[in-house]
Design brief:
Length: 153
């Protein structure tokens, strides 16, 4: 494959790029950056809409039956978002729409806590993404924000 050696990626070898990054075969062409990682940022309303859709997708894909059929869980696993809310629905304490709303609220709260925690974490470069971005678009946005990353091989 002919590819500009200064290019961040070759569009025909996206999967190969992802594999090389995961395996640590990509290196910094210049000096090391002044950051040690990235922090993905998404508009809050887009993130909330994405959370809303994802919870509905999970319910439509069998979340209630999955929780109903779970084996006994550890105390930590019992605290996972969605477990308590669906179990409350199964006990008749919440309607399904109420449990869905509770899962969505808990997930939004968790996302806000993560945003605050990562914002305080030093050395993370912020990269803005859109709620409609595909995984490939997200990865390309990350690479565009990391101009020193070049293919070592």
């Amino acid at each position: 494959m002919n590819c500009d050696e200064n290019a961040l990626y070759h569009p025909d070898d996206f999967e190969g790029l992802v594999e090389r990054v995961a395996e640590g075969e990509e290196t910094w062409a210049e000096d090391l950056p002044d950051y040690r990682g990235i922090r993905l940022i998404m508009d809050r309303s887009e993130l909330n809409a994405r959370i809303h859709r994802r919870v509905h997708q999970m319910v439509e894909s069998g979340l209630v039956g999955g929780v109903r059929n779970l084996p006994p869980l550890s105390p930590t696993a019992e605290k996972a978002i969605g477990i308590r809310e669906i179990r409350a629905h199964l006990r008749g304490e919440l309607t399904l729409p109420e449990s869905i709303a509770a899962i969505q609220a808990a997930t939004r709260q968790y996302a806000r806590r993560q945003e605050k925690w990562f914002k305080r974490e030093p050395g993370l470069k912020p990269v803005t993404i859109s709620g409609g971005d595909s995984m490939q678009e997200v990865i390309l946005s990350v690479f565009a924000a990391l101009p020193g990353l070049r293919n070592a091989g």
